[in-house]
Amino acid sequence: MFVLYETPAGYAIFKLLDEKKLEQVDNLYQEFETPEKANKLLKLKHFEKFNDTTEALAAATAAVEGKVAKPLKKTLKKILVDDVQSSLLVADAKLGTAIKDKLSVQCVYNTGVQELMRCIRQQADSLLGGLPKREMTAMALGLAHSLSRYKLKFSPDKIDTMIVQAQCLLDDLDKELNNYMMRAREWYGWHFPELGKIITDNIAFVKTIKLVGTRDNMATSDLSDILPEDVEEKVKEAAEISMGTEISEEDVLNIQCLCDEIISINDYRTHLYDYLKARMMAMAPNLTVLVGDTVGARLIAHAGSLINLAKHPSSTVQILGAEKALFRALKTKKDTPKYGLIYHAQLVGQASQKNKGKMSRSLAAKASLATRVDAFGEEATFELGAAHKVKLESRLRLLEEGNLRKLSGTGKAKAKFEKYQAKSEVFTYQPEADNTLNVKKRKHSESEQTPVKKEEAPVEEDAEVKSEKKKKKKKKQKDEEEAVEEAAAPEPEEQPTPAKKKKKSKHQE
User: How far apart are CA 509 and CA 504, in angstroms?
Assistant: First the structure.
């Protein structure tokens, strides 16, 4: 029985002298306590050394993928072809299957073999013999570096560390520029305070100071390349009546040196932003199309890498950057934040205040999908991001306009909207309804004048025959017709008036 042991320096094939020891797995470590005991159990049959690191990397890569490398194939043919009945102990089941298919050699892989490999690794220096420890360590280090580069599939365009560093440097440059501009405005404001209110652009303000110097030179200086004509006229007029103090030439030189620093930092920031934009489009095109290059770079920098960001769920991407607010809300049992760094995206910024939460949730869901495509996809295209952006823009339009359509497959959304819709109704005057003669009231009055008939009718109906019911129905119809005719006539309305007058006259007498 042979044992295949892989080392960074080459392949070692041992002969197992006592196969019964392999059955006692629990006590196997006792046979390797000393080099002498290990040499009694195992004997080195052959050692195939690698020529260089490239060959070692090819062999290690083949072993990882479950394939048989050429040096291993040649070595096994030399040793195992003569002894057909022998079996081979291997440390990897995939490699054992490949060897069995290629060379028709019986390979064994179980827990006992794993324990044997651990014991061989413990006494590897004494078992191999010819290899010095220093050389073995150097070969192991070189192979580890080469294999890690191969596993990562190294590509210069896929280095997210450059994006993280560039975005952090951009933020630092913005802070420094703000501090320098504040210092320049305050410093030159003692000499010409009106200039800061007239020129609001920082770079134009700095370039004006660098070109002119003191305010006495404003009248003779040409500022057409820096400022518009109307602003230039205001600056020259303000310079003549300025209330600032006088400063020396040395002060002006120091202020101009500060202006040079501000201009150089601004130029470098512009160059760095272009570099970041190009790198984001190369590495994460779908995420860049959805949220923008600045927000996408900040999300990657906050997560640590593009792969870490791709592992986050969409709910985490939504509040990424608002961790303090989240834990404070959980501690105080209040509402959790709706957005973090994604708040600065264009789609969220275009939404109204009531729809920002909905848009941030939708955008985070699509951004999470886009990030996974960018991180684990093979082709670097932005078709997915562009398609998702069109859908999000249409959703934003629906939310802003209030035109809720049948999105979920039911008519509930539309019915809810109709409930709250404001409908303006215009009421017109209907002259037909302006009538003082109420037929129903007259019927009620007639029924009050003859209460006995209406009370007797239901009693008679219960006792009489069907023929009598028909006669009574005919009588009722005649009575109703006479009541309608009396109500239409004006005579009954004039009758009660003389009675009232007589009563009054009697009372007066």
Answer: 9
pLDDT at 18 over 90: no
Torsion of CA 492, 495, 500, 506, to 10 degrees: -160
- Paired strand residues for 3: 14, 89
Backbone dihedral region of 330: left (phi > 0), alpha (psi from -120 to 50 degrees) or beta?
alpha
Q: Are 62 and 147 in contact (CB under 8 A)?
A: no
Averaged pLDDT, 271-277: 94
pLDDT score of 497: 45
Q: Could you tell me which residues are beta bridge partners of residue 108?
A: 89
d(CA 340, CA 299): 10
* 43/13 Cα distance (integer angstroms): 9
pLDDT tens per residue, range 39-48: 888 888 888 8
Q: Is the dihedral of CA 500, 504, 505, 509 positive or negative?
A: positive
Task: Copy the structure tokens of residue 400.
Answer: 């802003």
How do residues 190-199 score in pLDDT, each as one tens digit? 999 999 899 9
Cα 484 to Cα 232, 487, 491, 492: the distances in Å are 94, 5, 13, 12
Residue 46 is given by DSSP the state: E
Query: How far is residue 382's CA from residue 402's CA, in Å, rounded to a whole number?
Result: 30
Backbone angles phi, psi at 106, to 5 degrees: -75, 125
Binned at pLDDT 50, 70 and 90, residue 489 comes out as: low
What number is the average pLDDT over the span 247-274?
93
Instruction: Compute the chain's Rg from CA coordinates.
Output: 48
**For 94, what's the count of Cα atoms within 13 Å in the CB-facing half-sphere?**
8
- At residue 150 the predicted structure's pLDDT band, cuts being 50, 70 and 90, is low
Q: What was the pLDDT predicted at 451?
A: 46
Secondary-structure breakdown of the chain: helix, strand, coil percentages, each rounded to the nearest 5: 70, 5, 25
Strand order in the sheet with 2-6: 42-49, 10-16, 2-6, 87-89, 106-108
Please report, rounded to a whole number, the percentage of residues in the chain having pLDDT higher than 90.
Answer: 31
CA distances from 224 to 27, 203, 232, 233, 234 (A): 92, 15, 7, 10, 13
Q: Which residue has the tokens 């059955």?
A: 23
Q: Label the pairing between strands 10-16 and 2-6.
A: antiparallel
Please, are residues 338 and 357 in contact by the beta-carbon 8 Å criterion? yes
Which letter, b or e, does each residue of 453-486 get, where b requires 16 or more Cβ atoms within 10 Å of its Cβ?
eeeeeeeeeeeeeeeeeeeeeeeeeeeeeebeee
